[in-house]
Amino acid sequence: MIWYTAGVLAVAAERLAELAVALHNTRWSRARGGIETGRGHYPAMVALHTALLAGALAEVRLADRPFLPLFGWTMAAVVVAAQALRWWCIRTLGHQWNTRVIVVPGLPLVSGGPYRWLRHPNYVAVAAEGLALPLVHGAWVTALAFTALNSVLMAVRIRCEDGALALATAAGVRT
Asked: Which run of H or E residues covers position 103?
């Protein structure tokens, strides 16, 4: 359980690093006229992601979930792959990456890196991590609950992002 706790705390630290990048990118975007949409669902997203981390640890401890080596190490590999994909997205988008939905008028739509193949690769990383992280140590209730709630949230979030990009495009702004 100690190494699992350390792994979850490492993911939490990675999330804090993401928030630092997002804060920097928010300031950068706003200084260039960035327009934010979707503020209403942002607190729910933060709460859900925090609950994922807390829930995974709590379920393993309270329900005495076992570590099954073959399955657990496979899920750990998925978590690592999800982190790699997320940071590939962050690097590819540069200042345009954010935890918020902010469109800066005049910036081109990014179509390189993982965006060459997927419209929303960061959300693939989120979905994979949200399923795999709890399952590393058998926390299947947390994995299922996060996946179900995240599916609803991602439907809202993707609709918000696509709408913001479409609005910017319709206004004659290249995004």
From this structure: strand 101-103
